[in-house]
Amino acid sequence: MNLFIEKIKNQVYKHLILILGTILLFIITILSWYADLPFLANVIFLCILYSIMGMAWNLLTGYGGQFSLGHSIFFGVGAYTTGVLLARYGITPWLGIFVGAFLAGLNGLALGVPFFRLKSHWFTLATIAASTIYMLTFTVWDYVGGSVGLNLPIVPKELAFYYMYYQGPYFYALLALVILIIEIIILNMIVKSKIGIYLTAIRDEEEAAKHIGINPFKYKMIAMFISALFTGISGGLYAVRFGILEPFAVYDIITVSVYISITGILGGIYNFYGPIVGAFIFMPITEYVRTNIVVRYPMYYGLHVMVVGIILIFISLVMPEGVLGWLEKKGILRKETIIAAPEGD
């Protein structure tokens, strides 16, 4: 019994920052609700949303070594599936989001079959090409609204829970937080299992992994499915939160795929919690520039994208190992890196 209690204590201490951060986020969201601060709540929602996608992306990239710039595919599939089921058939998003996530996972498996035959930058280029194909396909697909997009219906208040429809971002921020916690628990179990160990081995030296009996294709496909699934859940949340789906928005390479990768790179792709740290640094900056400068002064359109470039340059020059990796390197944080960085990083 004492041993069990000691293990619980160790886990609490190990994840103390995460626990305190979760409590703090919950309190801030509730306070923003009561104080009617929608901008703050919306930024929190986006931070959590990109944390979910960043964690999912990092399973494929940080562990599996497959650098994807096509995760907008899974985001878009999740968003459109949730939106179509609601708008066309009246199916509640409580179900639609998970249907969309499953379809996103299946799309990940379908793309993985040809893409995992490619190595290094060729895999990355293929994901970019596929993302563009999806976007162009949805712009000419009349069933989902074509280039005009799809507007979700406004429902009466008495049906708000069924349709997951609430005014303001407060509810969605709390819901996203719950999903993020569930994702952390699931991914933590996965990376500590043989799947995580095998993925790391494949990332570091695929040929050597083959020689010891590891099937790289099998474990890459597992990582792809899980990564696409959680990204699809994020797409569904986005759909019901904003109620407007446009192919140029949900399949956008910059504001979806690149943003997702930046959260991981900025926080540190060789740290389990790196994407969360990256999302909570990166998203407030871009949202502030977009809403307070770009929207007010249209002549500066695209400035938030330039900020992305500046952040990328800063990361590459100052902290290529990411924020958490840099803090560990400086001795500010105790080294808690779960994923061993390859030689030379």
Description:
This protein has 345 residues and is mainly alpha-helical. It has a domain at 13-253. The chain contains 15 helices and two strands. Strands 1-2 form a two-stranded antiparallel sheet. The longest helix is centred in the middle third of the chain and has 27 residues, at 216-242. It is globular.
What layout of secondary structure does this protein have?
Layout (H helix, E strand, L loop, with lengths): L1 H13 L1 H19 L3 H26 L8 H18 L3 H23 L5 H19 L10 E2 L18 H23 L1 H11 L1 H6 L4 H27 L1 E2 L1 H4 L2 H15 L6 H21 L8 H16 L3 H8 L16
Antiparallel strand pairs: 1-2
Short structural description:
This protein is mainly alpha-helical and 345 residues long. The chain contains 15 helices and 2 strands. The protein has a domain at 13-253.
Attribute tags:
345 residues; mainly alpha; two-stranded antiparallel sheet; 15 helices; 2 strands; 72% helix; 1% strand
Q: Strand order within the widest sheet?
A: 1-2
The number of distinct helices, counting runs of at least 4 residues, comes to 15
Low-confidence stretches: none
Indicate the radius of gyration in whole angstroms. Answer: 20 Å
**Mean pLDDT rating:** 87
The global form is globular
Query: H/E element string?
Result: HHHHHHEHHHHEHHHHH
Helix content, binned percent:
over 70%
Describe the largest sheet: 2 strands, antiparallel
**Number of DSSP strands?**
2
Class from secondary-structure proportions: mainly alpha
Ends: how far apart?
Answer: 42 Å
Strand content: under 5%
